[in-house]
Amino acid sequence: MRLLAVVLALIVITVTPAHAEPRVVGGVVVDNPAEVPWMVALTTSSGYQFCGGALVGPDLVATAAHCVYGRAPSSITVVGGKLDLRTDGGSTSVVKQHQVAEGYSTPSRGNDIALLTLVEGMPYETLPIAETTAVYAAGNVGVVYGWGRLSEHDTTKSPLLHKASIPVMADEQCAAAYARYDAKSMFCAGYPEGGIDACIDDSGGPYVVGGRLAGIVSWGIGCARPNAPGVYTRVKTFLT
Protein backbone atom coordinates (compact mmCIF):
# COMPACT_ATOMS: atom_id res chain seq x y z
CA MET A 1 0.00 0.00 0.00
CA ARG A 2 1.46 3.35 -1.02
CA LEU A 3 0.58 5.04 2.27
CA LEU A 4 2.87 2.66 4.16
CA ALA A 5 5.78 4.06 2.17
CA VAL A 6 4.55 7.55 2.98
CA VAL A 7 4.62 6.87 6.70
CA LEU A 8 8.19 5.65 6.45
CA ALA A 9 9.25 8.67 4.41
CA LEU A 10 7.74 11.21 6.82
CA ILE A 11 9.77 10.15 9.80
CA VAL A 12 10.86 13.30 11.60
CA ILE A 13 8.84 13.86 14.79
CA THR A 14 8.71 17.49 15.83
CA VAL A 15 10.01 18.51 19.22
CA THR A 16 10.61 22.24 18.92
CA PRO A 17 8.05 25.00 19.51
CA ALA A 18 5.64 26.09 16.81
CA HIS A 19 6.04 29.65 15.60
CA ALA A 20 4.05 29.89 12.35
CA GLU A 21 0.58 31.37 12.40
CA PRO A 22 -2.01 29.40 10.47
CA ARG A 23 -3.51 30.92 7.50
CA VAL A 24 -12.18 30.84 3.29
CA VAL A 25 -12.54 34.30 1.86
CA GLY A 26 -15.07 34.72 -0.95
CA GLY A 27 -16.37 31.17 -0.58
CA VAL A 28 -19.68 29.47 0.15
CA VAL A 29 -20.97 27.17 2.88
CA VAL A 30 -20.64 23.43 2.25
CA ASP A 31 -24.10 21.94 2.79
CA ASN A 32 -23.68 18.36 1.55
CA PRO A 33 -21.77 15.99 3.87
CA ALA A 34 -21.32 13.52 1.01
CA GLU A 35 -19.08 16.07 -0.74
CA VAL A 36 -16.44 16.00 1.98
CA PRO A 37 -16.60 12.77 4.04
CA TRP A 38 -12.80 12.98 4.49
CA MET A 39 -12.69 16.53 5.88
CA VAL A 40 -11.50 16.87 9.46
CA ALA A 41 -10.83 19.65 11.93
CA LEU A 42 -7.85 19.83 14.26
CA THR A 43 -8.86 21.11 17.68
CA THR A 44 -7.46 21.52 21.16
CA SER A 45 -8.73 19.29 23.96
CA SER A 46 -11.21 22.06 24.81
CA GLY A 47 -12.64 22.05 21.28
CA TYR A 48 -10.97 25.13 19.76
CA GLN A 49 -10.43 24.55 16.03
CA PHE A 50 -7.04 25.77 14.79
CA CYS A 51 -6.40 23.88 11.54
CA GLY A 52 -7.96 21.56 8.98
CA GLY A 53 -6.92 18.27 7.44
CA ALA A 54 -8.01 15.38 5.27
CA LEU A 55 -8.32 11.66 5.95
CA VAL A 56 -5.97 9.82 3.59
CA GLY A 57 -6.41 6.55 5.47
CA PRO A 58 -8.88 5.42 8.15
CA ASP A 59 -6.41 6.46 10.84
CA LEU A 60 -4.18 8.86 8.86
CA VAL A 61 -4.68 12.62 8.42
CA ALA A 62 -2.71 14.83 6.04
CA THR A 63 -2.27 18.40 7.27
CA ALA A 64 0.31 21.19 7.34
CA ALA A 65 3.49 20.67 9.33
CA HIS A 66 3.11 24.08 10.98
CA CYS A 67 -0.23 22.99 12.42
CA VAL A 68 1.43 20.37 14.62
CA TYR A 69 5.06 21.53 14.88
CA GLY A 70 5.91 21.68 18.58
CA ARG A 71 2.54 20.36 19.75
CA ALA A 72 2.37 17.16 21.76
CA PRO A 73 0.38 14.63 19.73
CA SER A 74 -1.89 13.90 22.69
CA SER A 75 -2.87 17.59 22.82
CA ILE A 76 -4.45 17.42 19.34
CA THR A 77 -7.99 16.14 18.80
CA VAL A 78 -9.18 15.34 15.28
CA VAL A 79 -12.90 15.80 14.58
CA GLY A 80 -14.54 14.16 11.57
CA GLY A 81 -18.05 13.76 10.18
CA LYS A 82 -19.16 17.37 10.78
CA LEU A 83 -19.85 20.41 8.63
CA ASP A 84 -20.96 22.54 11.59
CA LEU A 85 -18.53 22.22 14.48
CA ARG A 86 -21.24 23.27 16.97
CA THR A 87 -23.28 20.12 16.36
CA ASP A 88 -23.13 16.79 18.13
CA GLY A 89 -22.28 13.54 16.41
CA GLY A 90 -19.36 12.80 14.15
CA SER A 91 -16.18 11.11 15.33
CA THR A 92 -13.25 12.28 17.41
CA SER A 93 -9.83 10.86 18.09
CA VAL A 94 -6.71 11.98 19.87
CA VAL A 95 -3.53 11.90 17.79
CA LYS A 96 -1.15 9.03 18.57
CA GLN A 97 1.81 10.53 16.72
CA HIS A 98 2.62 13.13 14.09
CA GLN A 99 5.28 12.78 11.42
CA VAL A 100 6.61 15.87 9.72
CA ALA A 101 8.37 16.02 6.36
CA GLU A 102 12.14 15.96 6.68
CA GLY A 103 13.66 19.41 6.35
CA TYR A 104 10.65 21.38 7.55
CA SER A 105 11.42 24.52 9.55
CA THR A 106 8.91 27.22 8.55
CA PRO A 107 6.08 27.30 5.98
CA SER A 108 7.87 29.78 3.70
CA ARG A 109 10.85 27.41 3.43
CA GLY A 110 8.68 24.54 2.17
CA ASN A 111 8.12 20.91 3.18
CA ASP A 112 5.01 22.05 5.05
CA ILE A 113 3.25 18.71 5.36
CA ALA A 114 2.64 16.19 8.13
CA LEU A 115 0.82 12.92 8.67
CA LEU A 116 -1.10 12.34 11.89
CA THR A 117 -1.77 8.82 13.11
CA LEU A 118 -4.99 8.58 15.11
CA VAL A 119 -5.60 6.51 18.22
CA GLU A 120 -9.01 5.58 16.79
CA GLY A 121 -9.69 5.17 13.08
CA MET A 122 -12.66 6.97 11.52
CA PRO A 123 -15.47 5.32 9.53
CA TYR A 124 -15.41 7.76 6.60
CA GLU A 125 -14.37 7.66 2.97
CA THR A 126 -10.78 8.75 2.51
CA LEU A 127 -9.39 11.29 0.02
CA PRO A 128 -7.14 9.84 -2.71
CA ILE A 129 -3.82 11.53 -3.45
CA ALA A 130 -3.28 13.26 -6.81
CA GLU A 131 -1.73 10.74 -9.19
CA THR A 132 0.18 13.04 -11.56
CA THR A 133 1.81 16.45 -11.54
CA ALA A 134 -0.64 17.51 -14.28
CA VAL A 135 -2.95 18.77 -11.52
CA TYR A 136 -0.53 21.69 -11.01
CA ALA A 137 -0.88 23.06 -14.54
CA ALA A 138 -1.66 26.78 -14.50
CA GLY A 139 -5.39 27.41 -14.83
CA ASN A 140 -6.53 24.13 -13.28
CA VAL A 141 -9.24 24.91 -10.76
CA GLY A 142 -9.19 23.31 -7.35
CA VAL A 143 -11.44 23.63 -4.31
CA VAL A 144 -10.09 24.64 -0.90
CA TYR A 145 -11.99 23.83 2.29
CA GLY A 146 -11.82 25.24 5.80
CA TRP A 147 -13.41 26.59 8.96
CA GLY A 148 -11.18 29.67 9.04
CA ARG A 149 -11.93 33.38 9.04
CA LEU A 150 -13.98 34.87 6.24
CA SER A 151 -11.79 37.96 5.85
CA GLU A 152 -8.30 38.98 6.83
CA HIS A 153 -9.53 41.39 9.50
CA ASP A 154 -12.18 39.17 11.09
CA THR A 155 -11.75 38.60 14.79
CA THR A 156 -14.02 35.56 14.76
CA LYS A 157 -14.48 32.64 12.41
CA SER A 158 -17.40 30.58 11.18
CA PRO A 159 -18.19 27.18 12.73
CA LEU A 160 -19.57 26.23 9.30
CA LEU A 161 -17.31 24.59 6.74
CA HIS A 162 -16.71 26.81 3.72
CA LYS A 163 -15.22 26.15 0.30
CA ALA A 164 -13.92 28.22 -2.61
CA SER A 165 -12.86 27.41 -6.15
CA ILE A 166 -9.44 28.87 -6.97
CA PRO A 167 -7.21 28.37 -10.04
CA VAL A 168 -3.59 27.25 -9.93
CA MET A 169 -1.16 30.03 -10.87
CA ALA A 170 1.92 29.63 -13.05
CA ASP A 171 5.17 29.11 -11.15
CA GLU A 172 6.57 32.32 -12.66
CA GLN A 173 3.71 34.34 -11.14
CA CYS A 174 4.29 32.73 -7.76
CA ALA A 175 8.01 33.41 -7.89
CA ALA A 176 7.31 37.04 -8.76
CA ALA A 177 5.05 37.36 -5.72
CA TYR A 178 7.26 35.49 -3.23
CA ALA A 179 11.06 35.50 -3.22
CA ARG A 180 11.19 32.20 -1.31
CA TYR A 181 8.81 30.37 -3.63
CA ASP A 182 9.97 26.78 -4.21
CA ALA A 183 8.25 25.10 -7.15
CA LYS A 184 9.31 21.65 -5.97
CA SER A 185 7.46 21.75 -2.67
CA MET A 186 4.87 24.51 -3.26
CA PHE A 187 2.34 25.88 -5.72
CA CYS A 188 0.16 28.98 -5.71
CA ALA A 189 -3.55 29.38 -6.30
CA GLY A 190 -5.47 32.61 -6.54
CA TYR A 191 -6.69 35.47 -8.70
CA PRO A 192 -4.52 38.46 -9.66
CA GLU A 193 -7.22 40.77 -8.32
CA GLY A 194 -7.54 38.80 -5.08
CA GLY A 195 -10.92 38.42 -3.41
CA ILE A 196 -10.95 34.62 -2.97
CA ASP A 197 -8.46 32.79 -0.78
CA ALA A 198 -7.85 30.61 2.25
CA CYS A 199 -7.35 32.54 5.47
CA ILE A 200 -6.37 32.24 9.14
CA ASP A 201 -7.27 28.84 10.66
CA ASP A 202 -7.76 27.27 7.21
CA SER A 203 -4.17 26.02 7.44
CA GLY A 204 -3.72 22.31 6.84
CA GLY A 205 -6.97 22.11 4.90
CA PRO A 206 -7.13 20.31 1.56
CA TYR A 207 -6.97 21.77 -1.95
CA VAL A 208 -8.78 19.23 -4.11
CA VAL A 209 -8.50 18.83 -7.88
CA GLY A 210 -10.66 16.25 -9.64
CA GLY A 211 -11.59 14.53 -6.39
CA ARG A 212 -7.98 14.10 -5.27
CA LEU A 213 -5.75 15.78 -2.74
CA ALA A 214 -3.35 18.07 -4.62
CA GLY A 215 -2.47 20.70 -2.03
CA ILE A 216 -2.52 21.70 1.62
CA VAL A 217 -3.11 25.26 2.80
CA SER A 218 0.30 26.52 3.88
CA TRP A 219 1.09 30.26 3.85
CA GLY A 220 0.80 33.63 2.13
CA ILE A 221 0.64 37.36 2.78
CA GLY A 222 -2.68 38.33 4.32
CA CYS A 223 -5.88 36.88 2.89
CA ALA A 224 -7.26 37.44 -0.60
CA ARG A 225 -5.02 40.44 -1.33
CA PRO A 226 -4.33 41.40 -4.97
CA ASN A 227 -1.16 39.85 -6.37
CA ALA A 228 -0.64 37.80 -3.21
CA PRO A 229 -1.95 34.30 -3.98
CA GLY A 230 -2.24 31.59 -1.39
CA VAL A 231 0.67 29.16 -1.21
CA TYR A 232 -0.05 25.46 -0.90
CA THR A 233 2.09 22.40 -0.24
CA ARG A 234 2.61 20.41 -3.44
CA VAL A 235 1.32 17.11 -2.05
CA LYS A 236 2.46 14.99 -5.00
CA THR A 237 6.08 15.75 -4.09
CA PHE A 238 5.68 14.10 -0.69
CA LEU A 239 2.88 11.52 -0.87
CA THR A 240 3.56 9.05 -3.67
How would you describe this protein?
The protein is mainly β. The chain folds into two domains: 102 residues, Thrombin, subunit H, CATH 2.40.10.10; 106 residues, Beta Barrel (Thrombin, subunit H), CATH 2.40.10.10. 10% of the residues lie in helices and 30% in strands. The strands form two sheets. The protein has a seven-stranded antiparallel β-sheet with strand order 1-9-8-11-12-13-10. A six-stranded antiparallel barrel has the order 2-3-4-7-6-5. The longest helix has 8 residues. The chain is globular, with a radius of gyration of 16 Å. The N and C termini lie close together (10 Å). The N terminus is likely disordered.
Q: Layout of helices and strands, plus pairs?
A:
Layout: H1 2-9, E1 28-29, E2 39-43, E3 49-57, E4 60-63, H2 65-68, E5 77-80, E6 91-100, E7 114-118, E8 141-146, E9 162-167, H3 171-177, E10 186-189, E11 206-209, E12 212-219, E13 230-234, H4 235-238
Antiparallel strand pairs: 1-9, 2-3, 2-5, 3-4, 4-7, 5-6, 6-7, 8-9, 8-11, 10-13, 11-12, 12-13
Task: Supply the CATH architecture of the largest domain.
Answer: Beta Barrel
- Report the biggest beta sheet as strand number plus sense, adding barrel if it closes: 7 strands, antiparallel
* CATH secondary-structure class of the largest domain: Mainly Beta
Helix percent reads: under 10%
Shape: globular
> Quick one: CATH superfamily of the largest domain?
Trypsin-like serine proteases
Number of strands: 13
Report low-confidence residues grouped into runs of 5 or more: 1-23
Structural class given helices, strands, pairing? Answer: mainly beta
Number of separate structural domains: 2
In percent terms, what proportion of residues is strand?
Answer: 25-35%
Helix and strand string, N-terminal first?
HEEEEHEEEEEHEEEEH
Specify the number of helices: 4
Query: Over the alpha carbons, how many angstroms does the gyration radius reach?
Result: 16 Å
Spatial separation of the terminal alpha carbons: 10 Å
